Amino acid sequence: MAKHNAANERIKREYFQYLKEAKGRDEKSLDVVAKAIHRFESSTRFRDFKLFHKEQAIAFKRRLAEQLNEQTRKPLSKATIGTTTRVLHNFFEWLAGQPGYKSKLNYSDADYFSVSEKDLRINRAARVQPVPTMEQMHHVIASMPAASDIEKRDRAIVALILLTGVRDGALVSLKLKHINIAEQRLDQDAREVKTKFAKTYQTWFFPVAGDAVEIVSEWVRYLRDDLLFGDDDPLFPKTKVGVGDNGFEVMGLDRQSWSNAGPVRKIFKVAFEAANLDYHSPHSVRSTLARFGQTLGLPIRTYKAWSKNLGHSNMMTTFRNYGDVPADEQAELIRSVDPNGSNSDDPLITAIANTVRNHNFGQ
Questions:
Q1: What is the pLDDT of residues 3-14, one digit of tens each?
Q2: Helix (H, G, I), strand (E, B) or coil at 352
């Protein structure tokens, strides 16, 4: 059976170039698009896109609903189905305007990849994500050993994420020059650090107490003074593996960075298991910091700075994406409301409420 179609491959290359150069999509986004289109091609046995018919889209959506995830062997999630059909809708809408395809396709053909309103609501519904408490994070760090170079590095990684909320993808690209211990600041320069949306910003260490600042400071000193690392060396070098008496063995630290954030997530998994806690991802710590800030009763201008520290230009992004109220706290807060109206008029809450009303968030 055919595994590709030459004509399809040519037009897909043009589309990928369009997304990259005209729309500014990164490689990760392009991979999602490529995978979605390949799913559709497989379902049509790689027929030429010029021979598209609405029945192909209808049959594809039906098969997609029946398809199993290769790893979990469970049906594909509504989110995966929604992403796949949205990608195909955009692709065929673009395709209908291209030379050689205009006479074969209509713009309305893309609409056949739309999912039901019910599924759209499911896809858009907010999900409660597990978030570690500040106490749990301190417990995890305190439980981590720090005898070897590898252990020192791993503990410093968890500590820095707690101090700054840096995303794991950015963390693996950090160099020593990007951290200023004297000023307790992390410089996320998008020219060298893989930040989200290629945004450059500075993060000052959050006041989380505990030993995190001391751990990170000692790690930086160790790299510079003991291992003689320089400014352009990685802040968190990858593990060096070589051939020893018993085959491949860990041989300390390399002077290279990791190519992806997979090892950081593994470090978190091992650390949480060692602390007898359920696993929480590195990214979930950003929610920990956002919620922690909300509990401090900060003035509106201070919380704006707190939000910018997480890399958010708009403070409402912090509340919308990371400020969810856990169910137990939700119950406590509701029960604490005075029905006679004599509740606290926190200036931060008042300002947020006004912002929500003025911008119609959530409607």
A1: 889 999 999 999
A2: helix
